[in-house]
Specification:
The complex is a heterodimer.
Chain A (H helix, E strand, L loop, with lengths): L6 H17 L2 H9 L6 H9 L18 H13 L6 H12 L7 H12 L4 E4 L6 E2 L6 E6 L2 E6 L4 E5 L8 E5 L7 E3 L1 H40 L1 E2 L2 E2 L4 H30 L4 H27 L10 H11 L6 H12 L15
Parallel strand pairs in A: 1-3
Antiparallel strand pairs in A: 2-6, 3-4, 4-7, 5-6, 8-9
Helix pairs in contact in A: 1-4, 4-7, 4-8, 5-6, 5-7, 7-8, 7-9, 7-10, 8-9, 9-10, 9-11
Chain B lengths: L6 H17 L11 H16 L18 H13 L8 H14 L2 H12 L5 E4 L15 E5 L2 E12 L6 E7 L10 E7 L5 E6 L8 E12 L3 E2 L5 H7 L1 H8 L3 H17 L1 H4 L3 H29 L7 H24 L13 H13 L9 H12 L5
Parallel strand pairs in B: 1-4
Antiparallel strand pairs in B: 2-3, 3-7, 4-5, 5-8, 6-7
Helix pairs in contact in B: 1-3, 3-8, 4-5, 4-7, 7-11, 8-10, 8-11, 10-11, 11-12, 11-13
The chains are: A alpha+beta, B alpha+beta.
Chain lengths: 352, 387
């Protein structure tokens, strides 16, 4: 029993953080907001050059073979810097699916090496999401039809764009006609792969929300330490302190829930879906409170376009219902909790 | 990250479980806030001690088992999971014990620790005073040096179960004219010493859950001081955080309550579901208890890797106290009109248990440092906000 990260994992996280801190400053985020495409090819190249697109690709296919636990750290950094790029969808969620196909499957052998190189962008349409993130920008889409999973070129689908409050999101409604030629999995196998796809998507969002919460807290701490009223920094007032202490508490409470879910996914534990939903709910709560308290302690400035906080708040609000809204995740946990014979209470926390 | 127990840890769990199954009191003990219940709990502690279960993390020579923190968590899970009695001597064992281990002389350790483990001595704490609550550095009770004795005068309050206890430990102003956290000494006082008088304070439940303690020229040997003269604040603070945050309230007891709450909800589903908020509250608090357990394992792992835990203890304190409150509030709402009924009325004893727990849960956000003070600590020490 050791519920901690290895030194390697922590070093990895620190390296990612240092890289993104330089390459993805809030000013760059604002610039990207103004563009039609909403993505920076330059940032994408740098991300690929750092090997980040290859993290989850198996070693035999040119990647680093890292697991969900590494992504629990990575996605927090992506959230912290509000990276305007659907890196996790391609390099984690879609890659996880492709790496579960037979090693000689053409979809797997043609796509994974390109993901590792950083030359391929994928978008995923799971029924739990009504719109597809980055559908217009992707070269290939992973689409679901009943139990079937299809890998479909962008040219074979129609995308109707929708605009989000988060100006770095690129959403679209996808319509298409399934044909046997693009089907990569069906029946029970397709169903099982979809379940894991959903769990990874939900975990990815959970990690990003937690990173966003931490960023909003840090921005708020900086702001209240320098903003003065009544001759003092407003951060010296207890009413302000307590708002931010509550945010810190929600973040700390959510972290181990996220880590346990990631570990459960990596191990293929039978309860992993329930743990992922718990993580989602804990991280949703942390980011929601970080946004609310954050704007409150920023005062009127928090309600402006000028202050950076808005970019992180909007991402948090936008992601809240992505890969399953709270009702979806609460239902999954309730079904487990209120089932007859559920093994609850002390000593069952790590039981499979 | 390795989230399975070792065979040794599993064997330890099985050993705890088997012992508890064979030895748990058949009838629930009376409340430890009564003389009768206090002595029943003392007898239970003696039984735990005989089989070296009272202080599992203490070394064997002090009656413990030298367990590590993971084994301690396992012990707590089995203990509270079995619905075993509350631990009556925790203020001594978990607050004073570690202080003695760190700052006590060999003689003090030998004299006090084994008796504490066996609950031959029951301990009350003497921190708060009428004008020193959240502002603990405002302590005015004096310990005046007179030869090889201190002469203690003043008053302590909110001393848990002091009415029944044998000893009190606390902070006293030993340097005349000193102020705030300077000039305090950490002293142990026998409660049967001449000049000590104790006035019980009835808590919400009508029982003598705590007391005011008055000192009128009470003579205590200087050998009863822990740490250096005038260093009492430092001694008290050095061990306060971790114990307060985690040891004092391990996750298991809240997971146990969360499980009982799920059972209560399921047994009363038809009436409970008329209020759509109740099911959500049950779900939310169960997840909260699990999150606290996960957080404990994460913390314990980090401590084992040599990391230090600071203001996070304050986060733990807020988490468990608010969680406990919300669970009991939810139970009261599920019980509806039956919730108000006292145990001696002709009612379901389970409902009465929730009421008793509900009353005690009101104190959680107040004792061991109010949650407002904890939020200040988080803001100042963890987030670095200005004083």
């Amino acid at each position: 029993m050791d519920f901690t990260f290895t030194d390697d994992q922590l070093t990895f996280r620190e390296a990612i953080s240092r890289f993104l801190m330089t390459e993805a400053a809030p000013e760059m985020l604002r610039e990207i907001w103004e563009t039609d495409v909403g993505r920076s090819p330059d940032l994408r190249h740098k991300i690929a050059a750092q090997g980040l697109t290859a993290l989850s690709v198996p070693e035999a296919e040119g990647g680093l073979g890292m697991d969900d636990v590494a992504w629990a750290l990575m996605t927090q950094e992506l959230g912290y810097y509000a990276i305007p790029d659907s890196l996790a969808d391609t390099a984690y969620v879609a890659t996880g699916l492709l790496a579960s196909l037979a090693t000689d499957h053409p979809a797997r052998s043609s796509l994974l090496p390109r993901i590792a190189e950083g030359t391929l962008r994928l978008a995923i349409n799971h029924p739990v999401n009504s719109l597809v993130s980055d559908a217009q920008l992707a070269e290939v889409l992973i689409l679901i039809d009943g139990d079937d999973i299809h890998v479909v070129p962008r040219s074979q689908v129609d995308v109707q764009p929708r605009t989000s409050i988060d100006a770095s999101r690129r959403l679209g409604r996808v319509t298409w006609n399934p044909t046997p030629a693009t089907c990569v999995a069906s029946g029970a196998a397709g169903h099982a792969l979809q379940a894991r796809l959903l769990d990874r998507g939900a975990l990815s969002v959970a990690g990003q929300l937690l990173g966003l919460a931490q960023r909003m807290l840090d921005l708020s701490v900086d702001y209240v330490a320098q903003r003065k009223q009544f001759g003092k920094p407003i951060g010296s007032f207890q009413a302000v302190k307590h708002h931010l202490a509550d945010v810190a508490r929600q973040i700390e409470q959510a972290k181990p829930v996220l880590y346990r879910a990631a570990h459960g996914l990596a191990q293929g534990d039978s309860n992993a879906s329930v743990w992922v939903s718990q993580a989602r709910l804990a991280c949703c709560e942390a980011s929601w409170i970080a946004a609310r308290k954050g704007i409150q302690v920023h005062g009127a400035m928090g309600y402006t376009w000028e202050v950076d906080l808005q970019m992180f708040m909007k991402r948090a609000w936008a992601l809240d219902a992505s890969w399953g809204d709270r009702g979806f995740h609460k239902t999954r946990v309730s079904d487990y909790l209120f089932a007859d014979g559920a093994r609850l209470g002390p000593g069952h926390t790590f039981e499979e | 990250m390795e989230l399975t127990y070792t065979p040794k840890q599993n064997a330890f769990r099985a050993e705890v479980r088997a012992w508890l199954a064979a030895n748990l009191p058949r009838e629930p003990l009376a409340s430890y806030d009564t003389r009768e219940g206090f002595e029943q709990h003392r007898a239970w502690e003696a039984k735990l001690f005989e089989s070296r279960w009272s202080m599992v993390m203490w070394p064997a020579e002090l009656g413990g088992r030298g367990c590590d923190l993971i084994e301690w968590l396992i012990f707590e899970e089995e203990y509270y999971g079995a619905g075993a009695p509350m631990r009556v001597n925790q203020n001594g064992q978990l607050l004073l014990g570690p202080t003695l281990m760190e700052f006590g002389t060999p003689e003090q350790k030998q004299r006090f620790l084994p008796r504490m483990a066996a609950s031959l001595d029951m301990w009350a704490q003497g921190w708060s005073e009428p004008n020193a609550g959240s502002d603990m550095a405002a302590i005015t009770s004096k310990a005046t040096l007179d030869g090889d004795h201190y002469v203690i005068n003043g008053q302590k309050t909110w001393s848990t179960r002091a009415t029944f206890a044998d000893w009190l430990f606390g902070l006293f102003r030993s340097e005349p004219g000193s102020s705030r956290h300077h000039g305090l000494s950490f002293v142990m006082v026998p409660l049967n010493a001449p000049g000590v008088s104790i006035r019980p304070i009835k808590a919400l439940n009508g029982k003598d859950a705590f007391a005011e303690v008055f000192f009128d020229d009470v003579r205590v040997p200087v050998a009863n001081r822990i740490g250096a003269e005038g260093q009492g604040w430092h001694v008290a603070m050095a061990t306060a955080g971790f114990e307060r945050g985690l040891l004092l309230r391990s996750p298991a007891r809240f997971q146990y309550t969360a499980r009982k709450l799920v059972e209560l909800y399921k047994a009363n589903r038809d009436s409970a579901d008329r209020d759509p908020g109740l099911r959500d509250a049950v779900l939310d608090t169960w997840m909260g208890a699990e999150a606290y357990a996960l957080s404990a394992y994460h913390t314990v792992g980090r401590l084992s890797r040599g990391e230090q835990i600071g203001a996070e203890s304050s986060i733990n304190k807020i988490i468990w106290s608010e969680l406990d409150l919300k669970m009991h509030e939810t139970a009261m709402r599920i019980l509806g009109a039956g919730a108000e009924l006292l145990p001696d009325a002709d009612t379901d004893t389970d409902a009465a248990g929730w009421l008793e727990g509900f009353l005690f849960a009101q104190a959680g956000p107040i004792y061991a440092g109010t949650n407002e003070i904890q939020r200040n600590i988080i803001a100042e020490r963890m987030l670095g906000l200005p004083k």
